[in-house]
């Protein structure tokens, strides 16, 4: 079979795969996970049920694949924030801020909580912890973060503390939470919080009223 033909078929399959994920996510957001059927998904996607079953065995498998795509996108987003530069403390602050905002903007999703308990999350959780621990190690070496606690334990502290962003009402509140978390990372002799990059100060330099959070989405 010609290479061009193979590439065309592969592209078509990728497009169908993406359409199935997006359509299912929309249906679940509107009707709830237990109310959506494979027949509804096939009809809304514009494909036959037989075709749908060639891609996924059930609705849960579709949503797991959708969630894996979301998690991968979030990890890439955090890596992009890290790569914006700055000193180790600023990179750490930027990544923790971005992580807290991700948690905040997807707050209140029972489905997200359910999917996050899946086995597919084992590797992403480990990757995220190692990613944050690496940033902390750099900041420790630079003298901006306490060195009396291992980076891995500090990473656990950060991730658990910033998970509280899911229940906050404004970005200003998220900013305050990030500041509190960062204050706990400072070497005891120095006190205070890490100095945030300019973009972070602009983002969170709002009153307590802050911005309203975005409309609910599935995560």
Write the layout of secondary structure elements.
Elements: H1 3-31, H2 38-45, H3 49-55, H4 59-82, H5 88-105, H6 110-116, H7 122-141, H8 151-162, H9 171-183, H10 198-204
Description:
Helix 8 packs antiparallel against helix 9. The chain is an all-alpha fold. The longest helix has 29 residues. It contains 10 helices and no strands. The chain is elongated and about 65 Å long. It is 66% helix and 0% strand. The protein folds into 2 domains: 57 residues, Arc Repressor Mutant, subunit A (Orthogonal Bundle); 161 residues, Orthogonal Bundle (Tetracycline Repressor, domain 2), CATH 1.10.357.
User: What is the number of independent domains?
Assistant: 2
Oligomer: single chain
Helix content: 55-70%
- Give the rounded overall mean pLDDT: 82
Assigned CATH superfamily of the largest domain: Tetracycline Repressor, domain 2
Low-pLDDT parts are: 198-219
**SSE class:** mainly alpha
- At the fold tier of CATH, the topology name of the largest domain is Tetracycline Repressor, domain 2
Q: Label the overall shape.
A: elongated
Can you write the helix and strand succession as a string? HHHHHHHHHH
CATH C-level name of the largest domain: Mainly Alpha
Number of helices: 10
In this structure, how is the largest beta sheet organized?
Answer: none
Which terms summarize this structure?
10 helices, 2 domains, single chain, Tetracycline Repressor, domain 2, Arc Repressor Mutant, subunit A, mainly alpha, 219 residues
